[in-house]
Design goal:
52% strand, six-stranded antiparallel beta sheet, mainly beta
């Protein structure tokens, strides 16, 4: 599923996923304290790393690599939200 929940075996081995119009290979593995995901076609790759920073926030870093272009790394930081009291 492109949107919503996604699971990934963290064994570093490739698996195929289905997205509209293109077969995609997906690999996931732990790289020390970071979860590394790589989504690739024959022409492009999206590399994402997930980790926790020193303040306990979830940090997602992503970069796109392609035959014709690559992008700078994008970073998203997620804060924990306290559960609403009832």
């Amino acid at each position: 599923n492109v949107q919503g929940e996604q699971s990934c075996a963290t064994n570093g081995k490739g698996t195929k996923i289905t997205v509209p119009a293109a077969p995609v290979s997906m690999k996931c593995k732990w790289d020390k304290e970071l979860l590394r995901q790589e989504f690739s076609t024959t022409r492009n790759s999206l590399i994402r790393t997930w980790g926790i920073d020193g303040s306990g926030r979830l940090v997602l870093k992503a970069r796109y690599e392609g035959l014709a272009q690559s992008t700078p790394e994008a970073v998203a930081v997620f804060d924990r939200k306290a559960a609403a009291s009832e």
